[in-house]
Amino acid sequence: MKYIKCGAEVFEFKPKPLFKTCSYCEERAILRPEGTSLYLCKDCFLKFCEKRVNENIIKYKMFSEGERVGVFLSGGKDSATLLAILKKLFPTQNIIGIYLNLGIRYYSEYAQSAVEELCKKLEVPLHIIDLVEREGVRIDDFVFTSFKDKVCSVCGVIKRYYFTKAVKELNLDVIATGHHLDDTLSTMLSLFFNGDFISLSRLRPVLPPLHAGQAKKVKPLFSLPELDIFHYAVLSDLPIEGCSCPHGELTPAKFWKSWLNDMLKEDKTFKFRLLSIFMKKLLPLLPKEEPEKEDGFYPCQVCGEPTPSKSHICVKCRRVSLLQKVEDKRLEWTAEEFLTYYSQNRDKILVFDVREKEDYEKGTFPSAIWVDPNLVSAEEKDFFKHFKNYRRKELIFLCYSGRLSYLFVLRLRKLGFNAYNIKNPEKLLQKID
Ligand code: SF4
Ligand code: ZN
Questions:
Q1: How far, in Å, is the centroid of ligand 1 from the Cα of 355?
Q2: Ordered DSSP codes for 180-199
Q3: Ranges in the chain annotated CATH 3.40.250.10
Q4: How many CA atoms, within 13 angstroms, populate the side-chain half-sphere of residue 34?
């Protein structure tokens, strides 16, 4: 069983047979579902996950026959597993996959390929919304705005806008997302400790529409552990892309998720107990969101969509308009473009090679400075310290495929540096061999 990472690296996943018989049949067990004392073979494990999802859908009345269900796909394991299970449990349901291509370099295209392959395999129609086609901008471009260190918050605004639009364009009754147990609990803990009880009350497995034109939002996987979902996806040979968004990789570590997994070492049912306390004891105490009043909305003067904004311009259009003032949104050079530019601007350019040291030592671009590739995930102050003397220079980064060096560029741009990536570095390196 294979899965792909960042459009290139192929990872193998081979579960080792356990020295146990399956708890449900005579086959050799290969897995233990998280938080249980079961030993399961492949088929029984898949059925076990499907049964849990089915129970959630029925218990919370997530959708009914005849309703149009849109599944938001990201290219990753969670939404792929959701689509596969829904299609298997409800083969005649009207289900449609939706993918929003945010134009994020070294991520969106790989994810789109995985989503296209998945929908083809499962025979599910796919609706793609392309941000570059619709708005002429990429999420990456926001590193040139005052939101440079809050790119995820702008991305959230744009995603919500286009998901709402997809509901209308596709006339959906229900939208389903792949949020799982670890997502639910880590978000719950983070909101709880921030005292954000309004957002906490939205962490329900079903959210009814708040105004006309909205769809019901459901999370059929909300009680499935992330690890079980990963195993389901690879055991079912679902096309998934393991690459994560370069902006997400630059945010602080997923503290609560790793804390939850640490707690499992003490008590293997910890996550389920916490979910049960949240659902049974805390959620009933929180007020449900009231439906929004229709008369508090105005059509946006730019896009026409309803907005509660007093300026009559929706928040998505306000964010996108910030980019109209940015003349040069270049973050990457091709090797050829760079060589021409370099020949005329040598004294203002510094080139950094972020490949492994042994490859750097075998040959690099003339004058390139080696930077430890691990620096990209260093603490902010250490990362900044490394580059602080180069503020006035144009910093050019190269690696093997362009992806790692792009992470350096994004991180430096967020700190206000003038950094660029080399898109096809192999050509630049070949040039000097
Ligand atoms: Fe958007 Fe941030 Fe998620 Fe990337 S990590 S897709 S920028 S919200
Ligand atoms: Zn608008």
A1: 25
A2: -HHHHHHHHHHHHHHT-HHH
A3: 332-432
A4: 22
**Neighbouring-strand partners of residue 127:** 98
**3-class secondary-structure state, position 175:** strand
Looking at ligand 1, which residue's alpha carbon is closest to its atom 6? 245
Q: What is the band of 253 on the pLDDT scale with cuts at 50, 70, 90?
A: very low
pLDDT score at 1: 64
Q: Are 84 and 77 in contact (CB under 8 A)?
A: no
* 111 neighbors 243 (Cβ within 8 angstroms): yes
Report the separation in Å between the CA atom of 150 and the middle of ligand 1, taken as the mean of its atom positions: 10
CA–CA dist 74, 155 (Å, integer) = 14
Prediction pTM value: 0.91
CB count in 10 Å sphere of residue 26: 7
Question: Whose atoms come closest to the Cα of 103: which ligand?
Answer: 1
Per-residue tokens: 216: 């019901």
Provide the CATH number for the domain formed by 52-285 in this structure.
3.40.50.620
| Secondary structure (3-state) at 90 | coil
Do the beta carbons of residue 88 and residue 220 sit within 8 Å?
no
The residue-averaged pLDDT of 150-155 equals 94
pLDDT in tens, 266-310: 899 999 999 999 999 999 998 877 766 666 788 999 999 989 888
State both tokens at 243. Answer: 């690459």
Superfamily name and number for 332-432? Rhodanese-like domain (3.40.250.10)
Ligand 1 centroid to 165 CA: how many Å?
19
